[in-house]
Every structure is written in C-alpha cells, then in structure tokens.
C-alpha cells in the first residue's frame, strides 16, 4: 500500500491537473483505489484540493512533500546485490605499474627494500596466498620489468598512453586477461602481508581496503554509509564525515570489474579518470564493501622523500611486526596441536624443505619438527593417506614418533631426530651409509604393511597433466614425443607382474637422516604408497647421481647378492624414466604457482628423453613392435 501512496503523491507532485482516471493509469491501480487513497491522504494531511471550474486540482501539503522526499531518499539508498553465489577463491591479480614518479629513474615498484624490489615482495605475498595468475600493467620504462627473470612467468600489458591517462585506462587494458574475481594492487604500496591475506579471506567479493587516515597529504578519503562505500575523494571538503583512507589494494568481482570497464569505454571522455572513481560510479547501483584495518603498517612511494621515510622508519617497523606475526602464527599451530601455553614455546628455527616449510621448535626443553605445507600442495597430496602412511613408518621404527597430524591443513608435528645428520648426494655414496639406507628400505619393503593407497605412476602422470593445464604451466619442448615413449613402456612394465610393496616414493638423500653411528631414519611420507620397490632404488640412484658402479654396489647391498637379475636392472631404468618424466611435470606445476627450481625440471625431462633411447629400452620397444 505504501508503494501506491508514494506513486500517487509523486504523480500529483508532477502534475496537479491529473484526473483520477489518469492517476490510475500512471500508478497501475484501479480508479476506486485512487479515490480511496486520495480520501485517506487528504484526511491525514498529506493532500489538499481546490476546485477550478469543473475540474478538481490536488496539491501536496508540507507533510506530503516531506513524505515524498523521504521516500525518494530511501529509494536511492537501495542497491542491487550483483552476486548470487558466495565468495570465491582468488587466483588472479592485477598490478598497476604504469605511472612515472619524477623523483625516480625507474618504476616505483622496482625500488628496493633490503635489496628486494617492492614488486617482488608483493608478488611473493600473492603467490604465498595461492595467486599465480598475475597481470602487470606497465607504462614508464616497461623494459625494466623484463630485465628481471623472476617476472618472466607473468602476463605483461603495456599502456603506451600512460603519460596522458589515469589508472582506469591501465586497468581496462587488463580486462581480456582476467576471467574471474581478482586482487587489484598498486605497484607503489608497501604493506603488511597480513593485510593482503585478510582482504583475500574477507567474506565480500567486492571490497576496498581502508585504514586510519595517514595524514600524508595525498589521502583518498572514504565515507561509509549503511555498511558500504558511499564516497571516495581526495578533497576532504566533500565529506560529512571521514571513515578512513583508501590504501590502494582492492578485491574486485569479475562482474563489477566488467561493469567498470564497460562504463569507461562507453561513456568516459576524461582519459585521466582513476579506477577509484569509476568504482564509485558503479557503487551507485551495486554494493561495494570495505575492510577497515586499524594500526596497519603501510606506505606509498610517490617521491624520494616518501622512499627515505618508508625505508628508514616504516619498513623497519613492518619487518619487526611481520616477524612477530609469523612467530605468533607458528606458535598458534603448536598451541592448538599440543595444548601447550604460549610461554612453553622457547625456540623456533626454520630449516630444510623443498616443498614445505619446516621448523625446529623447542617446547618445554623438548625438540620437535613442525611441518607447514607449501602453497599448492593441497591438490597434489592426499593428507589422509599421508597420515596413515606416516603412522606405519613410525610403527616400523624407520621414522620418529608422529605427535600430531591435521588431515585438513596438512600441519604435522613429530619428534626431532637426535643428533641428526641429513644425507646429501656425496655422503649417500659412502658404502657404510649405503648399508644403513638399504637396511631401512628392506625393512620397509619387506614389512608386509598395507599402505592407504597405491602409487600408480601412470595415473599420477594423467593427474599432474591436468594440474599443469589448470595452473597454466607450459610443457617443455618435445613433451609429446617423450610422453608417447613413456606410454609405450607402460605395457611392457605392467606385463612384468611386479609385486607391490610399501614404498616411500620420494627417496631424495635429504629424506634420509642418520642418527648416531648405526641408525638411519626415513622422513617425509607425502608421496608414499604401494609401489614397485625398484621405484625407491631408482629414485635414490637418480637423486644422488650414482655412477653405474655406485648403483651396482647399492643394488647388491639391497638384494644382499652380487648376482643382480636382468629384470631388476630393467625395472630400475624404466622407473628412472617414469620418475624423471613425472617430476618434470611436477616442477612445471610448482613453477606455474610461483616457485623457482632453476634447471631442476628441464634437467629431469632431458634425462628422461635420453633414457628412453637406452639400448635395453630400444630392444624392448622393438620386441613389442614385432
């Protein structure tokens, strides 16, 4: 009913000469209802009338005008909820790095802190958070970005008109490279990593990050109304009240971004438009949220003076705060897992780990190892299987006691090996160390234990290829050629009727830790499962760069005979090929997610390509063709 009242008052306000029939048409209601409403509105003091000739004229009283005004204001406060689905995981980011600062001879994002470019620091934080599809919009001195090899994996878009355009023109250039929600960050922002991580996890898809006013003199002030962004401007005179300052990092949904770009391309005649104001234009119709973080350590590098202040003061505070934040994070894992007090944790030291982050921690004078899984491992590792397999290793006495294992997060705590000496490719070749290593493998392989899963290399290859495509990884040259030969070996290998046994499947020397004179431990069971025992032998030979003589000695110690069957030797070379091919794909995936393994992946791939031409392999292929 109130809607019809509002419509009727609005129609009368625009034209006092309307008769009741025309009012009914305009409001979409019957003449009888119009007559009824007018009677009540006049009785309640919203309308008065006067007769002129044969016609009746209606006018709004002051009370009626106020009611109409309030209704119009309420209507304009209403906005469309553009999203039907919940928050999505952010995997993409756009970095705006086109602008020129007159005080710098290079882009602001390439200014360094502790020798590390600001842009690299921010990208490291993004990748740690699982964001690997990164678009960098350049302008001033674009070639400077390409001089840094660690940026080669990212998508660069150049704004040739950066001198004469604002940030919205740069952002619009990234549109064709963005396909989902993303994080938008300006290249000159130094900020605590927790700010980026909290923004990513904030439960609203369109959110700008704001904080307390900095007093820098270049603030983008923000006013909030009804829980959403209402106004953004650098002119404080436009505000009834200021709720914070925009930092320069925002989370945008693909839908809102597309509307920003469409409006910019269709209506904008001002090339100097900045993205904040285009976002505000969209906010007239759609709700744009905010996350306000108090006491945030951050800075914007617009001048040499900014850079000096941030280097000498802000960055030093930020380092201390982040170190404390990371320590508190690690301690929170330990407190939750072991039910200890904060004061019980005395020491935290990082060490080792190619895939994960490992820490030596001291709690109540007892030493443990905390394992925090690395970025992207959740899709490559089944943690429930790992927990079962790790428990088997502990029960066999070939790994230390498993104290805690979280199947959801992959966080693991185990006892620290006493007097540890981690093997390396050189020490692994010592005969006395080989004796200990082969004894551990025999104990594992002959235990009769049933692990939670089967490690099927051919299924893993298919699985990793799908992950490689999803991560946007690029296969090495000749990939299809090598893959075809690997698959041709599959039939030969599977016809050998190999009896599967519990295997470690990742026998790098660093996963073997000697304790004292005669004890060897085998650690890190992420890839464990039922497999051909020769997989472990082949893996150790590859990872330690065994010579043919080293490998012969290792096999004779493992088999406890100098008479090594031909089939065993063939299984070893085939497993080497399978592993090199599989782990080369693994490297492509990891590097697509931001890790850097140097030449590790291509070296393994090239070795697989070489070994598929081994004389035994060629001979077996020939027999199959016949």
UniProtKB/TrEMBL annotation:
Highest taxon, organism lineage: Bacteria
All copies of domain MobA-like NTP transferase, residue ranges: 93-215
Gene3D superfamilies: 3.90.1200.10, Phosphorylase Kinase, domain 1, Spore Coat Polysaccharide Biosynthesis Protein SpsA, Chain A, Winged helix-like DNA-binding domain superfamily/Winged helix DNA-binding domain
InterPro entries reported for this sequence: Bifunc_CCT/choline_kinase, CcrZ_PhaseVar_Mediator, Kinase-like_dom_sf, MobA-like_NTP_Trfase, Nucleotide-diphossugar_trans, WH-like_DNA-bd_sf, WH_DNA-bd_sf
Pfam families, alphabetized: Choline_kinase (PF01633), HTH_24 (PF13412), NTP_transf_3 (PF12804)
PANTHER family associated with the record: CELL CYCLE REGULATOR CCRZ (PTHR40086:SF1), PHOSPHOTRANSFERASE YTMP-RELATED (PTHR40086)
Name of the molecule in the record: Phosphotransferase
